[in-house]
Design brief:
mainly alpha; two-stranded antiparallel sheet; two-stranded antiparallel ribbon; globular
Length: 311
Amino acid sequence: MILNILFILVGVAAVLWGADKMTDGAVSVAQRMNIPEIVIGLTIVAMGTSAPELFVSLVSAIKGTPDLAVGNVVGSNIFNTLLIVGVAAMVAPMIIARSTVLKDMPITLISSILLLLFCMDSYISRLDALVLFAGFVAFMLYTVYLGKRGKAQVSENTAKPRPLWFSLLLIVVGLACLIVGSNLFVEGATYIAASLGVSEAVIGLTVVAGGTSLPELATSVVAARKGQSAIAIGNVIGSNVLNILMIIGVTGLIQPMQIQGITTVDLSMLIISVSLLWFFSFTRFKVERWEGGLLTMIFLGYITWLVSNAI
């Protein structure tokens, strides 16, 4: 048991460090290729923060634990929307951009509803995954188009990019850490779930989801403290869209998944959390402290319900 807890801790550390270094290397290479920073931010960095969820879900599905894979995504999105936004809003009220409320949040809700529909038969086929992945490609192309059209100014950042060899080394090392860390994490979590009699779905919805959402939590809380609420909320919403469309899409294309432990309650909570956040931000384009407190309380209630049913 102790060894497997160590596997989880080392796996989380390796996945988070690997995602950070791989993103740094990719950004540096993109800068050397004169790719606009707005495009880097909307593609490479956004996917970099979702890399932990991608690798953990992919490894889980390939190893025959699809409930862990889907539970990771569903749990991460609930964690992002309720706890991260909740805590960040309690730190400082969050002002939300009109484009986020009118464009990104509806896309997040639609993708969540699609996932619910695809899971109704307890099976995510390659066709289901292809629809999600096509949605991811369309979302990224549309976002990059809007970003380039709306922000054509040249960045004032004059920092010298890293040497090309070092950037490529960061990408390789980061990728290796993601793969090794994901394997350790999944091995440890699966063993503990079996030994405690807890389902893989519950482990995915709680322990794995929380671990892989650490980058979003840290980024959003720090951004909120600095008064950069647009970064905080954009990070959460962007991550939620990528988690469903990219991660489930890619994972399902490689390995179709039979889902058993992810319930309608879990998927409904995913939709409720996004709808509630959208409702709070729709009229005033702002999430107040009390609303953040309510989101946090709902998350704690959901986790308490999960754990009580698992025991």
